[in-house]
Write a structure and sequence with these properties.
204 residues, mainly alpha, 10 helices
Length: 204
């Protein structure tokens, strides 16, 4: 198989996998159209806020699994002259784009944090560990999921560079991080205005 064909296959398969709208499906099973409530986002945070805690937790792990499995798909591909880091980048890119622009939801989707976590668990576990540690510290101190997610995203490209990953992966992580932060611009504006949603315990 040619390098271009393998790259396209990895990108396409990961995109379809990433497009599976678990947030929409879980919320629909509970009688809620997640695209019409809360922030209108199908991510775990909005599902948790509008449907319930366990629904949100389920969506988080299902979305993370999309990123994780997308990276593992490439490991069963036949060996070729294509650099493994390029193939991995294609898979993570596909899963990320699918999650954010789902073909099943007229190209609507989430913000990409969960699927990125799943992909990095397979691709850059050391980078992910530092990013998650940052997320936990910021969230524990502020109770703002959005702020923790932005800080998580800022941490990733720096750690990826410091751990000397290949350029294509460093560039991809930088692009993904910038995109995630861009997706949170409305949250950032609400944080500045003091109107952002603060995470509270809920037993549903």
């Amino acid at each position: 198989m040619s390098c271009q064909f393998l790259f396209f296959c990895a990108l396409l398969l990961a995109y379809v996998l990433g497009s599976i709208p678990f947030g929409f499906l879980v919320a629909k099973a509970r009688g809620t159209n997640i695209l019409a409530v809360g922030s209108g986002n199908m991510g775990a945070t909005n599902v948790r806020r509008t449907v319930g805690r366990w629904a949100g937790i389920s969506v988080f792990f299902l979305d993370a699994a999309k990123g994780f499995l997308a990276l593992h798909i490439t490991r069963v591909f036949p060996k070729s002259a294509l650099d493994p880091s390029v193939l991995a980048a294609a898979a993570l890119t596909g899963a990320f784009l699918g999650h954010n622009f789902s073909i099943f939801l007229k190209f609507r989707g989430g913000k990409g944090v969960s699927v990125t976590i799943g992909g990095l668990l397979s691709l850059m576990p050391n980078v992910l560990f530092i990013g998650l540690l940052t997320w936990v510290v910021v969230f524990a101190a502020t109770r703002f999921v959005s702020l923790a997610s932005v800080c998580f995203s800022l941490t990733l490209p720096l750690c990826s560079y410091l751990f000397a990953y290949p350029f294509v992966l460093n560039f991809l992580i930088l692009a993904i991080s910038a995109f995630i932060i861009g997706r949170h611009l409305s949250n950032i504006r609400r944080l500045i205005a003091g109107t952002e949603y603060r995470f509270e315990r809920r037993e549903t």
